[in-house]
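User: My collaborator sent over this chain with a note saying "see what the structure looks like." That's all I know about it. Can you take a look?
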Amino acid sequence: MKLKLTVVIMVFLSIFLAGCTNNETAIPVDLSKKEVGMDGSTDSENVKIAIAAVISPEESFVYYNDLLDYISNRLDKPVTIVQRRTYQEINDLVRKKEVDMAFICSKAYVEGNRDFNMELLAVPVVNGKTTYQSYIIVRNDSNVQNFEELRGKTFAFTDPISNTGMLYPMYLLATLNETPDSFFKVNFYTYSHDRSIQAVNEKLVDGAAVDSLVWEYVNTKDPDFTKNTRVILKSQPFGIPPVVVPADLDPQLKEKLRTILLNAHKDVEGREILDALMIDRFIEIEDHNYQSIRDMELYIGEKQE
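Assistant: Without extra context I'll predict from the sequence alone. Here is the result:
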């Protein structure tokens, strides 16, 4: 997999470094609402599966294509891939029951579960774990050795409701009695973890907060993409990004989707697909695995009062 920022993104990131902050402007990205059937259709009868932009939309399609094709074959029904720019847009689709299943971020789940009873369906097991971390990364040639040394530097967050790409660095700032605008010279959102990695890799920012799963995956599959980056801080473990469904999804469809995921590692085709994604298998998990995210939210809220 070859991950690249488009020239347009690179140009606009450069514009940001001229002095814009996340409060003034958002990074221009493809705002098109993409819904593509695995067979090329857009049939409203299809099972609709949403993908949050943990990695950029064009790469998400490649990343999930084989798995969703596998799900479609096991359901014996067409599947439509639904993509949006932000995590919030995906949550809105789940809330409105406009999709049947979604691959989302952990903090997006916490908010969705709290606000409209979003339900856990399954989670991936990666390297024997159902946890992941936030990585604070800088350039290899940077003098920065810890988070506090990013004071006065430029910094890339991922998404406003990302756990690893926003909440965790916000928690770090709260422990220092700082805010993004008081601590960083410039800060903004890239809206995907691979774009944040690329921003550091290409010296467009001094540092970024990224999903450990994405960094490790890319570091393995395309080491040139991460070769100029260095991890200076790893967070505590958090509950891994889950697969979720809307509240009150048709019970039969929910059980079929769950069964397909939980058993994918047991057949040759499913095993090959999971191996390519660096996923051991899918399992069920309890909501309490996401309590540490709620605790960080509470801490930040108390510091802001």
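A starting point for your reply to your collaborator: The chain has eleven helices and 14 strands.
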